[in-house]
UniProtKB/TrEMBL annotation:
Residues 18-238, 494-679 form the MacB-like periplasmic core domain. Keywords: Cell membrane, Membrane, Transmembrane, Transmembrane helix. Residues 273-393, 721-836 form the ABC3 transporter permease C-terminal domain. It is a multi-pass membrane protein. This is FtsX-like permease family protein.
């Protein structure tokens, strides 16, 4: 039986290759996701190990919860004291800042999105364990405020060489033009993963980033020979006053890497979700393929049964073929997955996360996962057809009568109804009930509904298939009638193939509705709540120099400039953003107060956004407690206001209160009010920031467009990843039609013999393909609308109040499905048309 199964497999090489398509693509996405994830982990782990000293001293609250420096610093006197600690070979004070943007020779900011723009001082200190850290690769260290060192990636992307003048914009100064005197990098390999780095000498860095004070953000202490990190940490700790924390370099590196990897862990989850989608879609293709193969080999299997093979042996032979296909597909998927990981790395590099300095990591678990996923999915998908072979009676199969009994259809309908019911219940719990890990409920519910519809589709799609046959018969005559009958001949196969396309289009339609509704909600919120005439902000979402506000206040036609700042603290174990403005400007923000008055905001008090206050059970007079860089803060609630898009977080306080909490005094947005009748104001405001490409001036329409930008980016990225699932679905249609042609070789020969032309035959197969594609598209669009509307309805309380269905886009999806049907039929139709008539008729 084993020899017979292997010979059967090798004897049908075309089917063998076609059957592995889904396995290869599904496994490739899993492998690519895991390789990218491991590379990401290794890159950040190696980076932080190379950018910490043996012992790190930092002020308590020296960084915000987002990892940016706060206003807490270490005086130079403390650094001098540490130099006397026994076992300290050297002590280096570090200046660090986020928001030192490098402007390239093309007048575009280098990087900016995602990885930070870092500024600081050059010390030349070694990394922990005497590792080679950042070093000068060419040129020399900076001396004086007119010299700067850039990392090699930034210099290359900015188009700078040693001796050039580098244009820099910082969060504290408008524009700097120092000379590039050195290129820094990691001699032993590695990179900053997309971050940019500009380094000055220590006095200059203190002047630019710390207001000229002789202080540091943290201190590295290098251990002398024979002194461990733990020993040095204890000695340093004993020499310090209260208010500082001392950690080993290993601990600091692990903390930084862990925090950052947790922050970007959504990337891995995001990719693995789409790998799962691809596998589910691929499983439909594999089930369909093996169902066709079993049907085609029914006479062969019946002969084996007649010769004495048991049901178990026949089923086992089909599973053996699935195992072989799984191994072959997984092997090919491994190679393609490596290529896909390179593509994913290049894709994220476009969004700022550049891992080109780190070689791709191929862990043993990736290989294991590839084979487990590929083999298990393939054998599981083949189990149903294998089980079905055991129920084929030898005499029935020899008559080539292998149609499934009607009872099977009824069981599939019942199973589908049960799955749909369970899926809708689970989906409703995830969307509308307060359950832990609601995302799992939503995902499980969606999957159950999709599987339920797929199971029941042979029955529920019958009216559509009957209508298609009638339409084809009227529009294309006998050829159209034959195409319609072929679709109805095996509705389970037709709908299984359509289900693969249905899943991809369901998710695409859902995302189209979510994206369109989110943008409509943004437009509605901005239209209802936009105040002032213009908004000034950092295109990367960060801070910009406070001096810009002073310049804009002097612009002709400007009546008032309202500053907004924000920072982050910690509340109930999670990050919490806090916005701030001048108390005299609360009325100008257009706050619609539901409790308290706009004039009630004072230092030490806060206003809360209405829905946030309701969710946390807070009202006027209560106290909000947040852990901020300068310690735990308790602020009294002075008022409650309705959601407002120009207030970036649900907690609003004063500028002085935010500064007292340890947040640097830099602006994040300016709201500009113009004098009545003033003209040409935006042009004059643009002139203020024309040399600052990180800062933009926007009117209401421009602000709304900026708010829609991230939504468009996310939706486009999801579409790109869903494209793989759609590719698998298209290959499924091609595969099904091609195998169907092989199965119907004799029938095709007879049609040609009675006068059907090659052109008519191609039309017949194309029409069959169109039925499959349109069926999948209709089911996908209907389900996508249902899922999308339900999801947006559940998110109404999160500020996404508008539900918008982009009907034009959904029509485009249907037209694309029609095109897919036509294109998918090209190869099978050509093959059918080229069959030799006499040989086809003689085929058993």
């Amino acid at each position: 039986m084993i020899r017979a199964a292997l010979k059967s497999l090798l004897g049908r090489k075309v089917r063998l290759i076609m059957s592995t398509f889904a396995i290869v693509l599904g496994v490739a996405f899993v492998v690519g996701s895991l390789v990218f994830s491991d590379t990401l982990n290794r890159s950040f782990t190696a980076l932080f190990a190379s950018t910490v000293g043996d012992v790190v001293v930092r002020p308590v609250g020296g960084t915000t919860v987002t990892g940016e420096p706060s206003t807490k610093t270490i005086p130079a006197g403390v650094v001098d004291r540490l130099r006397t600690v026994p076992g300290a070979a050297r002590v280096d004070g570090n200046v660090s800042s986020v928001g030192a943007f490098v402007v390239g020779t093309d007048n575009k900011v280098v990087g900016g999105f995602g990885p930070p723009a870092l500024g600081g001082n050059w010390t030349g200190a070694p990394a922990g364990h005497d590792l080679q850290g950042l070093a000068i690769l060419s040129g020399h260290p900076p001396h004086g405020e007119d010299q700067v060192v850039l990392d090699e990636k930034t210099a290359d992307r900015g188009g700078y060489q040693i001796g050039d003048r580098v244009r820099l914009i910082t969060a504290t100064r408008l524009t700097l033009m120092p000379e590039l005197v050195g290129i820094a990098g990691f001699p032993e390999g590695g990179s900053l993963n997309g971050a940019t780095l500009a380094l000055f000498d220590t006095p200059t860095a203190q002047r630019f980033f710390l207001g000229g004070k002789d202080v540091f953000n943290d201190v590295w202490v290098t251990a002398a020979d024979g002194v461990s990190q733990e020993q040095l940490r204890d000695r340093v700790d004993a020499a310090l006053p209260a208010g500082y924390e001392v950690v080993t370099g290993d601990t600091a590196a692990d903390e930084s890497a862990t925090d950052l990897l947790q922050a970007v862990s959504f990337l891995t989850t995001f990719l693995l979700i789409f790998a799962g989608i691809s596998l589910v879609v691929g499983a439909f293709l594999i089930v369909n393929t093996f169902s066709i193969l079993v049907a085609q080999r029914s006479r062969e299997l019946a002969l084996l049964r007649a010769l004495g093979a048991s049901k178990r042996q026949v089923s086992a032979s089909v599973l053996l073929e699935a195992f072989v296909l799984g191994v072959l597909g997984s092997t090919a998927g491994l190679g393609l997955g490596y290529v896909l990981a390179m593509a994913i790395r290049a894709l994220f590099a476009r969004f700022g996360l550049d891992l080109s300095g780190q070689a791709l990591i191929f862990q043993p678990r990736t290989v294991l996962a590839a084979y487990v996923v590929g083999v298990v999915v393939t054998m599981t998908a083949a189990w149903l057809p294998a089980r079905r072979t055991g129920r084929i009676a030898p005499v029935q199969a020899l008559r080539d009568d292998v149609a499934l009994p009607e009872g099977s259809m009824h069981r599939r309908l019942l199973l589908g109804i049960v799955l749909i019911g369970a899926g809708l219940t689970t989906l409703a719990l995830g969307l509308f009930a307060d359950v832990p890990h609601a995302g799992y409920f939503v995902g499980g519910g969606v999957l159950a509904v999709l599987l339920g519809v797929s199971s029941a589709s042979p029955v529920i799609s019958r009216p559509f298939l009957l209508g298609a046959r009638a339409s084809y018969a009227r529009g294309f005559g006998s050829i159209g009638n034959l195409a319609g009958q072929n679709s109805l001949r095996n509705p389970r196969r037709t709908t299984a193939t359509a289900s693969a396309l249905m899943i991809g289009l369901t998710l695409a339609c859902t995302m189209a509705i979510v994206g369109d509704s989110a943008k409509a909600s943004v437009d509605k919120s901005v239209a209802e709540n936009f105040v002032g005439d213009y908004i000034v902000s950092n295109v990367f979402g960060g801070a910009f120099p406070a001096g810009i506000a002073h310049r804009m206040e002097r612009v002709d036609g400007v009546a008032n400039v309202v500053r907004e700042r924000y920072g982050f603290g910690s509340r109930d174990g999670g990050d919490q953003g806090v916005a701030a403005t001048d108390p005299g400007d609360t009325a100008a923000l257009g706050l619609s107060m539901t409790a308290g008055r706009a004039s009630d905001l004072r230092d030490g008090t806060v206003f809360l956004e209405d829905s946030w206050a309701s969710d946390h059970g807070l009202s006027v007079g209560d106290t909000v407690t947040l852990k901020m860089p300068t310690g735990t803060k308790r602020w009294r609630v002075a008022g409650i206001y309705d959601d407002n898009p120009v207030v970036f977080f649900p907690i609003l306080t004063t500028l002085e209160t935010l500064a007292d909490a340890g947040i640097p005094q830099r602006d994040n947005a300016l709201i500009i009010f113009t004098e009545p009748g003033a003209t040409g104001v935006q042009a004059r405001l643009d002139q203020v920031v024309e040399q600052l490409p990180i800062v933009t001036v926007k009117d209401e329409a421009g602000f709304a467009e900026e708010q829609r930008g991230p939504i468009d980016q996310l939706v486009q990225m999801i579409y790109a990843l869903l494209g793989l699932a759609l590719v698998i679905a298209v290959l499924g249609i091609v595969n099904t039609l091609a195998l169907s042609v092989i199965e119907r070789t004799r029938e095709v020969g007879l049609l040609r013999a009675i006068g059907v032309s090659r052109r008519q035959l191609r039309w017949m197969i194309t029409l069959e393909s169109v039925v499959i594609s349109v069926l999948g598209a209709v089911l996908g669009v209907v389900l996508g609308i249902g899922f999308g509307v339900a999801l947006m309805y559940a998110l109404k309380d999160q500020g996404l109040e508008a539900i918008s269905v982009p009907y034009a886009q959904l029509v485009v999806f249907l037209l694309l499905a029609l095109l897919i049907g036509v294109l998918a039929a090209v190869f099978p139709a050509r093959r059918a048309a080229r069959l030799d008539v006499l040989r086809a008729i003689a085929t058993e």
